[in-house]
Amino acid sequence: MKKIILFVFVILLISSTGFAQTNGLLGRVYDSTNVKPIVFATVSIIRKSDSMLVKHARTNQQGRFSISGLKADTFILLIAHNNYIDFVDEIILTEKDAVKDLGDYNMIQRGQVLREVIIKNTAGIKIKGDTLEYLADSFKVRQGAMVEDLLKVLPGIQVNKKGEITAQGEKVEKVLVDGEEFFGDDPTVATQNIQSKVVEKVQVFDKKSDQAAFTGFDDGQEEKTINLKLKDNMNKGQFGKVELGAGLDDRWQNQAMVNSFKNKRQMSLYGLMSSNGKTGLGWEDKNKYTGDGGNMMMDDDGGFMWNFYDSGDDGGNFGNGIPEGLTKAWVGGVHYADKWNENKEHLNTNYSFGRINRTKNENSKTENLFPGRNYQSLDNSNSFSSRNTHRLTGKYDFAIDSSLTIIYNMSGRLAFIDGSNFSKTQNTTYNEVPISSRMTNKSDQSVTSNINNQATINKKLKKTGRTISFNASFNYNNNHADGTIEGENGYVVAGTSVQEMIDQKKKDDFVANVLSSDLTYTEPLSKKVLLKLSYGITSDNSHSSKTAKVKPTGSIDYSDRVDSLSSDFSSDIFSQTAGLEFKYNEKKYNVTLGSKARYSMFKQMDLVRNRRYDYNRVNLFPTLRFNYKFDQFRRFTFSYSGSTKQPNISQIQPVQDNSNPLNIIIGNPNLKMGYNQNININYFSYKVLSSRSLYAGIMFTNSFNNIATNRTLDEFGRTINTYVNLNGGYNASLWGGINTKIPKTPIDGKMNVSGSFAHTPTIINNLEGNSNSFSITLTPGLSYSKEDKMYLSLDLGTIYTNTQNNLQTSRDITFFSFAPSASMNFYLPKNIEIGTDADYLYNPPVGPYATSFDRFIWNGYIAYKMLKSKTLEWRASMNDILNQNKGYERSTTANYNTERNFQTLSRYWMIGMVWNFNTGPLATSQKGMGGHPKGGPSRRGGMRMHR
Amino acid sequence: MKKIRLLLILQFIVATCIAQQTKEVPSITFRGKLTFERKINMHKQMDEMMKGSSGNSAMADNFKKQIPKYKTDVFEMFFTDKESLYKPAPDGISESKMMMGNVPAERNIVYNNYETMTCVAEKKLFEKTYLVSDSIKQYQWKVTEEFRKIAGFNCRRAETIIMDSVYVIAFYTDAILAEGGPESFNGLPGMILGIVMPRLNVSYFATKMDNYLPLEKEIAAPIKGEKVTYLSLNTKLRDSMKQWGNFLQRILWYVSI
């Protein structure tokens, strides 16, 4: 009997252990600085879905921990120790992992130094996987401060005068609000218009591209991103900012933002009108005179391509920090985002409108260097442009289940551009003997529309790492421009001077339809090797016509077409691209090696001359990428990419372009295939607690059999262009910098270096030569900030420029220029704030530049905050107090030395007010205790972890 | 005179420097003595107790005027990494004058053994003393991202719901190895230094920590009282206090924590 009982008992025991499907975790916790195990750190396993603490343990003398009895689920692993910064990671436990070994975790010491100087409350900073998180309330800012002020006091983050943000030594490309893209890519919309007190956490991470995140193949497109996680109770009421400012001489800047957030729904309105160059929403206009049609260019595959100045992005041109021309802007936008269906469906839309009017005067002097035939050009132009642009973007994604996602992206843009430009050009010899002159008065009206649609289906298959992704897109571009040109050309041909009057009407049309789709498949070949196969087809269909018409003698109608200035091309490019890539994954490093091959079929028609060009091209694009991650904040990347370059049809057998009888193109059928390669090496290291960052990088590009233009000037003053293969050209650039706290002082120091070297073989008048240009910029800087009291910074920029040309030794140019800048902000008692900043630029006279140039721009403001929570601010500011602002730019290349002066906004003053409002619960009370009666907050919504 | 003043200032500076140095929180504490302060909002407590009973509210308001809003009691807790004893400090329980305002089970003694995972608790309820012998109470904690400094320790906030309806906020530190807390609260990765139960109008917060090796008798389990388990005590009270109505629920809560 006893035996039977025992038997039954044993059976029960075995079966019970057999049935209990429990899993375990193992790991080790290390001190990152002196590589010793951390004893008695707590390891908490928290269920991700409801933040419930499931199990916990302490590490033993060897720093090891083991936890058993877990069921398959997604967990948050929290490792904490009094002396270290909390570490958070996400762990997915499947039923197959009996005991999952998590490997080693490195913890970062809260550090002795730190406790004294930087952070009073180290609990305010946390590392979650690859995300660095700051708890906003742990950092002290003034009442009424904006997010930008908060970012300035966070260790490891810097904000410069223009509002550009650097985090851990890298430029921040995007600022998200509660994980949502907020009015496109202009970070300052969020940082300058949202108050810091509505923010709960600031999270800094590297955002991977959607495809890289899905397939696990890095494409090197990581963007440093900041997410502003707002406080939970911002879900009620409205908050925002109203700013008004005006001064004499037609100077004004008014803007407003209203946000209404409710649960996952975000709704925001933004509007701005200004006459001081501020355009907001990334509307900074392209400085180039647009409105004009396009230029015919050749693309990588050697086909036709029409390239418009108005290429769709309205990105800024602040090359040397000075906006060009005088701008008035009226800008508005709406942002809407929502999640529903248990967050499976997500929509983000932004609409914006901008009207940007700009007037600009500029003049330039250019030295053109041709062996034996140097001459100079003087240009003078006045232009006006008015752009009215509508933009709409939308993204919808739907996670049908955990393995299948559909993403739809659209963007549309409609722009109406009116422009006029009056310019005068005078080409003379050095002794001011005229060679040719031109005077034109142009005006254009154009309408551009772009529509992009893209749909992606991502499917994860059963086996981990096996994925399939299908992507289809359709792009439509249309540009229509009407314009007139009036003017006068004068030049000397074979000793006689010729005058030519110009009076033309122009019409440009361009339509392109690009349809493409591709399929990507990834397959894990082993635990460490991943394979990616891709295949795509693209059909690019475009048509471009340009007509120029003149009045026949005695007529008032523009009825005669000028054949030499008219063209009509159509182009069909059908290409197939296949790619094969391998990725080898180790814990600390990964290597990606692969190549793409593209087969393109070109069918191109010159409809005016009724000629047809059909040809096929094959090009290869090999890549190699190596990433080494020492730890979370130290990494090394090496990447190599190459591409073959087939000579294009116009280089072998040119399309006759008679638009300029003084410019003749002769083809070269003996051209060889070229090959370009690019090597990029980057090192980055960041020490969280001493907030020291170090970065360095080198980029090297060279080409074999590069196709260059041989330009000859014949005795008739004609330029004859032909194409040849030239070897030996390369380009190298390097950059590096260190930002650190200077030990034993409260001062931050930095030293940035950037340099470039280019060796360019040239061929002019059949004479082979080469030019070298070298420039290096050294910027040491110091900054000091006392929370809540003052902020000081000083940068000393020095630039060394050297250019040499072995055919023109007299024009070897070497000079130093200086560009120091300083800024100061003081927060005085009685809610008064004053600030001032100054920029200086000095360029010495050298070579072609007869005079030195210097400029000292000094700005200042005083502000007074009032109301109980300091939400109302009065502000008086003066820009360019000394009235010295002048637009100036030098550019030095192998064949040209140009000095350009342009109009820009100089001294003005403004008086105004800023009001931050908040009708939500935060307006009256700050976060208190015990505010969550039921269930408790589960605040992990905005968390992002990738390891 | 001036010299003396200077000396005093110097002395003060030196003293604060030393104080600051010694204030440094040790990385991990294995044993010691914690002092807790319990605060009960008596006015709210009275409101709750009057709810549903026939007593008139004017009388309750009158009572409220005569008693201070908060009743503060002091508890102490001796602990090692293996066991802990939580009990009222000597003279720690302040007198409350009002019979109606009295707090049931206000002097609980709880002994937890973290090796055997058992507990022994003495619960005084009116005239009766029970000795609960059971396994350590299990809680389902939710861990949050909030922090608060308590008695010099950085504490993380966690939450749970007990007895289906009482919301509990706890603050714990991983710098103390024992996994206990005031009353019978436990089960977080470290020592609980703060408990807030809005529903019971009560909060417990540690006020100081002494690094101290408890004597064996200071950490001994209680022995007096009628032997019960949590379950049997609960049934017992339900049976004997049926007519107490709304009041009973509160008593059960106080006894069970």
Describe the structure.
With 947 residues, chain A is mainly beta. Among the domains of chain A are: 2-107, Sandwich (Immunoglobulin-like); 112-230, Ferric Hydroxamate Uptake Protein, Chain A, domain 1; 277-548, no CATH class. Chain A has a 26-stranded antiparallel barrel. In chain A, strands 2, 3, 5, 6, 8, 9, 10, 11, 12, 13, 14 and 15 form a twelve-stranded mixed beta sheet that branches. The longest helix of chain A is centred in the first third of the chain and has 18 residues, at 2-19. Chain A starts with a helix and ends in a 29-residue tail after the last strand. The model of chain A is unreliable at 10-20, 112-122, 283-320 and 923-947 (pLDDT under 50). Chain B has 257 residues and is an alpha+beta fold. Chain B has a single domain (29-256), classed as outer membrane lipoprotein receptor (LolB), chain A. In chain B, 34% of the residues are buried. The model of chain B is unreliable at 10-26 (pLDDT under 50). Classes of the chains: A mainly beta (947), B alpha+beta (257). At the A-B interface, strand 2 and strand 3 of A face strand 7, strand 8 and strand 9 of B.
Please write out the topology.
The complex is a heterodimer of chains A (947) and B (257).
Chain A: H1 2-19, E1 23-31, E2 42-47, E3 53-58, E4 64-70, E5 73-80, E6 87-93, E7 99-107, H2 112-117, E8 125-128, E9 131-135, H3 147-153, E10 157-159, E11 165-167, E12 170-177, E13 180-181, H4 187-191, E14 199-207, H5 210-215, E15 223-230, E16 238-247, E17 251-262, E18 265-274, E19 294-298, E20 304-308, E21 326-340, E22 345-368, E23 375-401, E24 404-428, E25 434-460, E26 467-493, E27 496-524, E28 529-550, E29 560-561, E30 567-585, E31 589-606, E32 611-631, E33 634-645, H6 649-652, E34 663-666, E35 674-687, E36 692-704, E37 706-713, E38 719-726, E39 730-741, E40 747-764, E41 767-786, E42 790-805, E43 813-828, E44 832-843, E45 853-866, E46 872-879, E47 887-892, E48 896-902, E49 908-918
Parallel strand pairs in A: 1-7, 6-8, 12-15, 34-38
Antiparallel strand pairs in A: 1-4, 2-3, 2-5, 5-6, 8-9, 9-14, 10-11, 11-12, 12-13, 14-15, 16-17, 16-49, 17-18, 18-21, 19-20, 21-22, 22-23, 22-48, 23-24, 24-25, 25-26, 26-27, 27-28, 28-29, 28-30, 30-31, 31-32, 32-33, 33-35, 35-36, 36-39, 37-38, 39-40, 40-41, 41-42, 42-43, 43-44, 44-45, 45-46, 46-49, ...
Chain B: H1 2-23, E1 32-41, H2 42-50, H3 57-66, E2 70-79, E3 83-88, E4 109-113, E5 118-125, E6 128-135, E7 142-150, E8 153-162, E9 166-173, E10 191-197, E11 202-210, E12 226-228, H4 230-240, H5 246-256
Parallel strand pairs in B: 6-12
Antiparallel strand pairs in B: 1-2, 1-11, 2-3, 3-4, 4-5, 5-6, 7-8, 8-9, 9-10, 10-11
